[in-house]
Amino acid sequence: MSGAWDVVVVGAGSAGLPSALSLAERGLKVLVLDELAAAGQGQHKAAIGGVRATFSDPAKILLCKESLRVFSSWSEVYGDDVGWKRGGYCFPVFGEATEKSLREILPLQKGAGLDIDWVGPDDICRLVPGIVTEGLRGGTFSPGDGQASPLQFAVACERAARSKGVEFRYREPVTAFERSGDRVTAVVTPKGRYPTEKVVLAAGAHARQVGTLLGLELPVTPDAHEAGITGPVAPFLDPLVVDLRPGPEGRTANFYFGQNREGQILFCYTPKELFVGEDREATSEFLPIVARRLVSLIPRLRHLLVRRTWRGLYPMTPDGMIIVDAVCEAPGVYLAVGLCGHGFMLGPGLGRCIASLVVDGRPTIPPEAFATVSFYRDFRQGQQETLT
Ligand SMILES: Cc1cc2nc3c(=O)[nH]c(=O)nc-3n(C[C@H](O)[C@H](O)[C@H](O)COP(=O)(O)OP(=O)(O)OC[C@H]3O[C@@H](n4cnc5c(N)ncnc54)[C@H](O)[C@@H]3O)c2cc1C
Q1: Rg of the chain's alpha carbons, rounded to an integer?
Q2: How many folded domains does the chain comprise?
Q3: By residue range, what is the domain housing residue 334?
Q4: Per-residue confidence in pLDDT tens, the chain, 388 aa
């Protein structure tokens, strides 16, 4: 490849960081540009760090299986601690309809090689100590899933990428692309002009705006989600727990939480009415609602001390699936956008897929799975992932 850089990655977040690393591991000279001051300062650091492959969509399953391999072996392969904890994911179930839908996707998940099964109420009580038992029917448990620290991962991934020769330039918003015909020839920021023939767009919540600079209409619209973290308590909870029930207050859909290796509980819920836009001001209603949900599920947690809450954005697509593709209208441009609510866990698998698209001209996943993440799919036809 000619040009000063083989590839310029726009965005040093959940998609851009592992993509840059994978591209460098494939022998390419990579530059990463980000408008913020450091790695992972966009939505990446808003994630609570859940990592699982137990979805119902084959593309997500395959990409996240690869991510799980990367997260779980990170310290041996790259040397840094990324806070990996293999505690599994647990979906406790209280309703007949939820039991039916979770049981229905088990054959697909097992067929994809996932270690997941239905377990009875006693097992759920062992996995989630203190959980209320009234109406508890059992649930699913996938022991191979886990959690990692987005903050530690951003630092570690940037360090690993730098060690492979990747250059990072921060506080450099990409404002234009120079082109010759359809092809990109350089990426432009207020501080410089960076010659390249290949560009990976990994601009998260700003994907639509960056796409516009290339005349692309990227269907990515951010909506806001809140999370929080407590002070540390003695380790008692191995899995990340997802309660799929809507909240009794009428404002929330599912709700999920887990305990990190430092003993802190991280928690989130999905609002029933989405907050579309880029407003990242924390709301006053989040903590009272989430605290009630947490305590009503595990009453012994009423003594927890909450340290802070925050609000971040999901870069959403109309069908809730990511967009990973090579752009036909602009050869040399690749998309790693629309990561929705699962960008942290998708990142490393997605990064390898992008590197394969750039270097080998084909994705790491089979064509029928790739079709569901393609930029050229019909976004109106898509199915929302069963497991949010
Ligand atoms: C409360 C909350 C909890 C979450 N929990 C989880 C979880 O447990 N597990 C999980 O997998 N996911 C989780 N997520 C989702 C996850 O955070 C996102 O899906 C993911 O971070 C999106 O990655 P991204 O690379 O698309 O965007 P980002 O990580 O935001 O990266 C995009 C980067 O592009 C840069 N950029 C944008 N425009 C430009 C420009 N013009 N020029 C230069 N740089 C630019 C931005 O500064 C940013 O650094 C959570 C999200 C929230 C809000």
Answers
A1: 21
A2: 2
A3: 7-70+150-220+319-370
A4: 445 999 999 999 999 999 999 999 999 999 999 999 999 999 999 999 999 999 989 999 999 999 999 999 999 999 999 999 999 999 999 999 999 999 999 999 999 999 999 999 999 999 999 999 999 999 999 999 999 999 999 999 999 999 999 999 999 999 999 999 999 999 999 999 999 999 999 999 999 999 999 999 999 999 999 999 999 999 999 999 999 998 888 888 889 999 999 999 999 998 888 889 898 888 888 999 999 999 999 999 999 999 999 999 999 999 999 999 999 999 999 999 999 999 999 999 999 999 999 999 999 999 999 999 999 999 987 655 545 4
For residues 227 and 307, membership in a common domain is answered with yes
> 227 with 283, same domain?
yes
Q: Which is nearest to 243 in space by CA: 223, 257, 264, 261?
A: 257
| CATH number of the domain within which 267 lies | 3.30.9.10
Tell me if 78 is assigned to some domain.
Answer: no
Please check whether residue 378 lies inside any domain of the structure: no
Rounded to the nearest angstrom, the distance between the alpha carbon of 43 and the centre of ligand 1 is: 3
Burial label for 64, CB within 10 Å (0-12, 13-18, 19+), is buried
Torsion of CA 25, 31, 34, 37, to 10 degrees: 90
Ligand 1 centre distance from Cα of residue 4 (Å)? 28
3-state helix, strand, coil in the chain (%, to 5): 30, 25, 45
How far, in Å, CA of 173 to CA of 188, rounded?
8
Residue 111 lies in a domain: yes
Q: Which atom of ligand 1 is nearest to the CA of 343?
A: 19
Residues having CB closer than 6 A to ligand 1 are 10-16, 33-36, 41-44, 46-50, 173-174, 202-206, 210, 225-227, 268, 312-315, 339-345
